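ABC transporter substrate-binding protein
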Amino acid sequence: MAHDDPTDDGLTRRDWMKRGGIAVASGLVAGCTASSSGGGGSNGSEAGNGSGADDRIQSSTGTSAQGGTTRSGSYSVAIEPVGSVEFERPPERIVGGWGFVADVLMALGHADSIVGLARPGFWYQGFYELLPSVKPRNVDEIPNTVSKSYSVKQELLYELDPDLLATDPNRFIASYQLEPSKVSTLATDVAPFFGNLSRSKRAPSWSNWPDGKSYRYYSIPEFVERYGRVVGERERASAMIDLYERTMDDITSRVPPKDDRPSVGLLSAFTNPENKGYFGVIDPIPEIDKTYELKQYGDLGVVDAFADEYDSENAHYDLKLGMEGLLDVDPDVLVFDEAVNALGGNNVYGNADAYEGMLELLRTDPVGKQLAAVENDRLYPGGTGSQGPIINLFQTEMLAKQLYPDEFGAWHGLGEIPENERLFDRQRVADIINGTL
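Predicted structure tokens:
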């Protein structure tokens, strides 16, 4: 939509945004110009496959499953927990979260619509550089809409004047300590929310706006499909989903039998005994299948070396160990979570050298040198959890080669895979991004 151009009825974009907000049961606002329905379902629910009546774009004279009728020329798209959101035209200025939705929008050819992110540094750009004729974004130029102390920069949101807040409003409430009334104000005065936090299993204390009931998770293809409709790119979305699902089906069908897989330890790339006093061990198996943060580990059937060791009392990490404790378990392979950010130069954790320091420590420490993964040179960078379809394609390929080289070929390093050893078609991804369908 034109940013401040009048609509056909003489209203500016901001005017019709303000005019059209419809309050839902909780008193918050979910949509632009149509009534909204909150999410049902339950945490971890697999109900719904993206083809239900409440998920379809309504025609200009169509009637929704809830009985509402769209205005001429408008369309609506539904997502839990915000319900059905009506649009006059595709949004051109979008504020997102940590990089997931940004990767989805890149896949849809709309990366330039991102005008703000909660954590721009977590939108890893390195994989886009491996795609022909695809221009990465400079994340240093994208405003950070959440402060280092995890509070929403509300004045900045007004200044950015977005058409859409592509994030789960519960993120603002549960993680950024924003009062529901303030979220309602943002939805009315700034832009509607359209998002669902499916990164990982939501905590028991999750706010579950709007009605206090838990709501469903969405898979990566379901997000691509919904955002494709939001930005008017249904054909691009369909093409990306087709490529993505065919690739995943091929890779996962080739995973070796469990007895032939190495044991794996997933460690934080930025936490070690020298800088924190311990290694931070992460459970690599997603608690909810549809969540995307650890998706490649679940899809590739990772054998977790620490499966019987976790301590539920640990904060943040599933397990904290010293060097001796690591040797006691002695995984065949060590993968370092979020290391691609360090290799890509993103200083998102305040210490870009911590990953290299981790590797040096393991290779020089008298105990660390005894680890099988060190002796066999099986220390690998892990991916970012802020992964949509493109980043997940690369990171699934990366992990498949790291863990199962006999089946998928050797991993030579980021950006070093010969064309005949790649597990998906880079040119096809680029063509979809660029609209060559």
